[in-house]
From TrEMBL:
UniProt protein name: cysteine-S-conjugate beta-lyase
Keywords, sorted A to Z: Aminotransferase, Lyase, Pyridoxal phosphate, Transferase
UniProt xrefs under NCBIfam families: C_S_lyase_PatB (TIGR04350)
GO molecular function: cysteine-S-conjugate beta-lyase activity; pyridoxal phosphate binding; transaminase activity
EC number: 4.4.1.13
Transferase among keywords: yes
Family the entry assigns: Belongs to the class-II pyridoxal-phosphate-dependent aminotransferase family. MalY/PatB cystathionine beta-lyase subfamily.
Native species: Pleomorphomonas diazotrophica
Length: 382
């Protein structure tokens, strides 16, 4: 067996899960963004160790050792200097960007987002009575992921820009030039940048993640960065994330906007996060190799066997945004669910059209092949 096993198919129906419980047993779930891999051993070991201590009371503001580790990671990975005190632990990135919006925007203010996008980002403006301004993310063929002029126009007078980088569902990674343009447009309009960087670790060859706040201290002062170990290490159910907010006043406003709704993080999630960041890198490297091979396999099989489906090979994330418009399936999500017994995420839930679906390839290769086989068969029987 390889040092790390990503090939074994684990029966996740033995425990409650969002992914495997939603659909009947004959449906293969390739939707919600978690992976079908077991957790890295150093994380499991740290959790077992913590369980030896019999008390699970409130965890306080989060361990100093983890704050220090996050600060070290930002310096080592991105050359970004932060203070451990800049870190605010949270039960999730979604609560984090909603809390950020409460802190910085008033009802009626404008919030700029880039569509199609992760559904809770699409929904966030509605929670706070904000005016949502959508700017399209451009496909790889366009070169740049962002039409800077259009984004700059949208940001004029906006209170906030909710950036998703790397981008879910397109898997695009912003280049430094693009981020500089985005940051300049935000700074000149006075918009605060809320940067959802939850997929920052899952970036493939060639591309490199740059936190927008790492561009300059000036940008960092106007940015709330949201990160977590949850996507990379497949521990989303442990409900732990963190905001990095270097500006003390912005941080104070962010914390005050919690309003008793989502304070603090899960004590086991904090343990898992620390183990992941401290000991998980070899596992992560192996995971990235496996996922990158899955991505290439998916892209190659679709090009060969289902050329009517177009996709831009994702530079990041284990998500692929499939354009099925040439196949004229009508509602592509429905077609694949009913005829292929494969569950994707429907395009409209991201603000896209119903010719698009999002496929999750964070699974053993055999499951990925099973999903593609089912698609090929259903399409051949049309
Ligand atoms: C872009 C993005 N942000 C946030 C989340 C979820 O964050 P959390 O579970 O920490 O609230 C996801 C999950 O898929 C995501 O893709």
């Amino acid at each position: 067996m390889a040092a790390y096993d990503f090939d074994t198919v684990i029966d996740r129906r033995q425990v409650p899960t969002s992914k495997w419980d939603r659909y009947p047993e004959d449906v293969l779930p390739m939707w919600v963004a978690d992976m079908d891999f077991s957790v890295a051993e150093p994380i499991a070991a740290a959790l077992r160790d913590r369980l030896e201590h019999p008390v699970f009371g409130y965890g306080g503001p989060g361990p100093a050792s983890l704050r220090d580790l996050i600060a070290e990671d930002m310096r080592d990975l991105y050359g970004w200097t932060i203070s451990p005190a800049d870190v605010v632990f949270l039960p999730g990135v979604v609560p984090g960007f909603n809390q950020a919006l409460k802190a910085i925007a008033q009802p009626g203010d404008s919030l700029v987002i880039e569509t199609p996008v992760y559904p809770p980002i699409l929904a966030a403006a509605g929670h706070w009575d904000l005016n949502r301004v959508d700017v399209p993310v451009l496909p790889v063929a366009e070169g740049s992921a962002v039409d800077v002029d259009r984004l700059t126009g949208a940001l004029a007078g906006a209170a906030a820009f909710l950036l998703c980088n790397p981008h879910n569902p397109t898997g695009r990674v912003r280049t430094r030039t693009e981020l500089e343009a985005v940051a300049e447009a935000s700074l000149s309009s006075g918009a605060v940048i809320i940067s959802d960087e939850i997929h920052c670790d899952i970036v493939y060859g060639g591309a490199r993640h740059i936190p927008v706040a790492a561009l300059s201290p000036e940008v960092a002062r106007r940015t709330i960065t949201l990160m977590a170990a949850s996507k990379t290490y497949n521990i989303a159910g442990l409900k732990t994330a963190y905001a990095i907010i270097p500006d003390a006043d912005l941080r104070r406003r962010f914390v005050a906007a919690n309003l008793g709704m989502s304070e603090g993080a899960n004590v086991l999630g904090l343990v898992a996060t620390e183990a992941a960041l401290r000991h998980g890198r070899p596992w992560k490297q192996a995971l990235l190799s496996y996922l990158e091979a899955n991505r290439d396999h998916l892209v190659a099989r679709l090009a060969r066997e289902l050329p009517g489906i177009r996709l831009n090979s994702p530079e990041a994330t284990y998500l692929a945004w499939l354009d099925c418009s040439a196949l004229e399936l009508g509602d592509a999500y429905r077609f694949f669910l009913d005829k292929a017994k494969v569950a994707f995420n429907p395009g409209p839930s991201f603000g896209g059209d119903d010719h698009h679906v999002r496929l999750n390839f964070g699974c053993p290769r055999t499951l990925l092949d099973e999903g593609i086989d089912r698609m090929v068969k259903a399409l051949s029987q049309r």
